[in-house]
What does this fold into?
Amino acid sequence: MPKEPVIIEETTDEEVIGDASAVADDAKSIASCPVGKVITRCESSTGKVGAGTDGATVPVTGNDCIAHNGWNSGIAVVAKAVCSENEQISDPCNGAALLKYKHLRAKGANPSLECPAGYEAILCNGHSYWWDLITGKGVNDVGVIPNDQACAIANCQDQKYCDISLVCKLMDDLDAYAASICPDCDGWNCEEGYDCQMVEGVHSCVEKQTGCDINRCGDADCFAVGASDYTCDCQDGFEFDKLAGTCLPVHSHYRTVYGDKAIGDDAHSYASCNAGQKVMRCHTFGAPSAADGVTISEADGVVRCEARASNSRKFPIMAVAYCGDNAVATDPCSQDKLDHIAYRSNTGLSPSVSCPDGFVMESCIFHSPWSQGLSAANKARINSIGAVGINDDGSCAMADCLNSPAGHQWCKLTAVCKKLVGVEYLKAVCPTCDNVRCPEGQECQMVEDLPQCLIRIPGGCEVDKCGEGECVEDGADYKCLCKSGTSLMRLLVRMRTSVLRNRVEWRVY
It folds into this structure.
């Protein structure tokens, strides 16, 4: 039976001695600590470690000191231990309570151990079932590696291994512990859902903000709000739309329509305008990472913005349409009915779109079911809401949009075109009368260098009054070239209508 623990004066430590082992290879003597105490000293007290006995070890539980007998030792081994209370000490770095002692163990061809930061080594034991492998390697005759040496044994073997155990004690100076472990937030502990912040050099745990973990602000800066919300500091011309969750172009006279959220490869979100309205802008967030882009479609007189999700499933997408009334006007050049807003689209590997004459491109948007294969240069041209930059010449284009495309793959660009008004439209479409078609009863005339349709005044020869002669028109007046007999006589006849006398005067020159 193990001997009764011996109380060490002026401490709560106890000395424990195990029963002697059998005089046999690998026989053990174990000294166990009472409940609540752990090993702080362990040795094979009968000696001959590395010269017949195999050494001593402490398991990671820290409860036992084990002395190992060896081959042909000729003696019994006896484990002798000191047990100390393993107090729980408040962590100066705001973590869970710290144990005063920690127990580590390693084995192998070259085992080595060090105490974690904030702890210091107080006991290192060495052992090998092949005692000759620890001979002359710093393990003393009771199985202890002195604290002024590294806790390590070199040049053992993978199959014939050595093992070591290390007892570490928490630093007595807790201020020094804090200075070593948590001088800043890197080592400071906060509870779940909180992050550390340094406020005037003092650690503070604040509620963790996750709103910007996925940045939906595109080119704008994201700012966390509360625990999980966020807002975007949008650039000039854009504003944060909370429902869409991103920066959208500023407007004041359109109606904003939001589609349902959609996620999954090719999932659709639609934002439809009322009948008689046009989609003035069509956007979504997450192009081209979470969204394949946006396009505009029209069916049964209803125009809608359509957003399509990509296969990334990064987060749900939502179509957002700006809807405005479709003003219809008469084209001053052709007299045809003309929509105020027109759409143009082109599909291919190098799509290009331009607006018709008399229109200016307001927006250009992108869509491709194969957006994840976009070339880096083209991906950079698409902003986070699916818009593509308009070129200086007013067109919108992409060259070789996809990397290594298959034959059936494509990209699509859609332009929203807005009609010019007044003289700007005339200058762009019909700067001269050559391209003007006037209504019945009117004719085109240049007025201040611009074509205008004016009431038509009948010409003087529209009713032939010269008989056998030739009528030469002079505006509303006319001249007759008359003939006499078989020879022509040039006569200038001028006809004047007298409103008062209602008669015709002939003058012959």
In short: DSSP finds three helices and 40 strands in the chain. The mean pLDDT is 88. Helices lie at 174-181, 376-381, 422-429. The longest helix spans residues 174-181.
